[in-house]
Amino acid sequence: MKKILSKNDNIAVTGIARGGKTVFLTSLLAQLEEFDQADFSFAGNSKIEAFKELRTRSDFIRQFPLDRYRDFLAMRGSWPEKTSDAYCYSCEYWRSDWKFWKQRLNFFDFPGERIADSAIAAVPDYRKWSEHILSHLKNHKSLFEDARGYFEILENPSAPLEEIIFEYKLTLARLILNFKPLITPSTFLLSKEGITAKKGSVNELASQRASGLDFDSEFVPLSREYCEQNPEYAERMHKNFRLYRRNVVMPLYRELGKCRKLIVLIDLPTLLAGGVGQYNDNRQILQDLFQTLRPDSSIGRKLASTIKFWQRPLEKVAFAASKADMIYNDDIENGTAEGLLRQLTSKARKIVPEAEYRWFVCSACQSSVKGEKPYTLRGRPARNNPEKQIVEFEVPRLPENWPDSWQPGDYRFKALLPEVPKNTQKPPRHINLDAVFDFIAN
C-alpha cells in the first residue's frame, strides 16, 4: 500500500568522553536497513519496511558514509576512523503498523567539542565576542590561572600579533591539559577533519594546533585597547573570525537548531579511567550543551535571534551509556551503570526540564561476552594482542556513586576490537540499541 502521509523527525546525536557516535550510527542504520536480519524489537514488534537512504540537503556538512564504515567494521575488523567533525544522514521507511504513513529521519552527528563555540554562533560581532571570552577567562579563577600570561601580553600594545596568537594557544593548551572545557575556537581541540589534539606538552600542542580554520586564518580574542592601537590587526582577526563562523560554526548550529530530539552518548569506562578531572570537564560540557539548547537562557536567546527554529524547545532526550560491552554484566543488570549515568546527567536534565528523558545502557557493537570467573569478560583486546586472540580478562567493579576523587588509572578497562559478521547483510550484535531507537523515533 502506498503511504500518502509523511512523518519527519530531526535527531541530533552527540557524545562526550569518546561516546562512539560513528559506531552508534553505523550499527543503528545497519539494523534498520537489514531489519529482517537484525535482532531488533521495535514499537510493539512492528517491522521496518522499504528502508531507503536519502540524499542530505546540507551543502556544508557531509553525508554519513554508512557503507564505508560498515566495511571498516565487517571486513577490516577495526573501528572506523572519522574524516569529518560532523555528518548528516537522511533515510525513509515504512512501519508495518502504519497504514498511511511513512517515516523520514534526519540524523545530525555533531561533536560535543563544538559547544564551546556557541558564543561565536550567538555573537556575530568579533569585538563583542572578544569581550565575552576575555571576561569569561578573567572572571573564573581556575581559568584565569591558565590565561594569566595572555592577559599580560595583551597589556603591551606593541606586542606582535604572532606572539599574541601563540600565547593564546598556550592558554588553550593549558586548559586542555588541566581538563577545562572552554576551548574556543574549538578546532584547536578537534579539527574540521575530526582529528583530536594529541597528548603532549603545552608548547607541543600550541605549535601543532591552529586557533581557527587553519594556520593561515587564525584568530584570538583581543582587548579593546589593543584593537584601538592596532586597527590592522583587529581587522585581520575580524576577517578570520567571520571565515570560521561561516564555515565551521553556523552550518553546525543551523542543523542543530532544527533538531527537537537528542541522543547523548557517554562512555562511562573512559570517564572512570580518566580520573576526576576528565569527569568534571565532560560534565561541564554537558551542562554547556543544555544551556545552549535552552531557548530562554542568555545564550539561547542570542542564538534564537540569529538562527531560525532555535526558539523551539527539545522534545526528547536519550542519555545512553554507550560502551556496555566493556562493563561487567552484573553492574548493568543491578542498575549500577544506569545509576552513574543518571548522577552524571542530573543537572543537565534540570536545565531543560520540559523535555522527556530516558536513560539507557547500550552497546552498538557487542564485542564481549561474560567470562567464566566473576568480573571477567571475553573478547579481543585492541592492545598487546597482535594475533587478535579472544582472551578472558578482568574488568573493574563499578562504584555505586561517583567517588569524591580518583586518579587516572584507578579504573582500568580493556579497549576491544569489534566483533562484527563479515556478511554485511547481518548487522552487528548489539545491547539495547533497539530500546534507544524505539524511544527516540516514536
Q: Name the average pLDDT.
A: 92
**What's the overall geometry?**
globular
* Residue share in helix: 40-55%
From the alpha-carbon coordinates, what is the Rg to the nearest angstrom? 23 Å
The tally of helices reads 15
Main beta-sheet annotation: 8 strands, mixed
How many E strands?
11
Q: Work out the strand percent.
A: 15-25%
Structural class: alpha/beta
Number of domains: 2
Gap between N and C termini: 21 Å
Overall description:
Pfam families: DUF463 (PF04317). This is Putative ATPase. With 442 residues, this protein is of the alpha/beta class. It folds into two domains: 5-113 and 258-441, no CATH class; 115-250, no CATH class. The chain is 40% helix and 15% strand. The protein has 15 helices and eleven strands. It has helices at residues 21-33, 66-76, 118-122, 126-139, 141-154, 161-177, 202-208, 224-229, 231-258, 268-274, 276-293, 298-306, 329-333, 336-351, 433-441; strands spanning 5-16, 48-54, 62-63, 87-95, 101-109, 261-266, 316-321, 356-361, 368-370, 376-379, 391-394. The strands form two sheets. Strands 1, 2, 3, 4, 5, 6, 7 and 8 form an eight-stranded mixed beta sheet that branches. Helix 5 (141-154) runs antiparallel to helix 6 (161-177), helix 6 (161-177) packs across helix 7 and helix 11 (276-293) packs across helix 14.
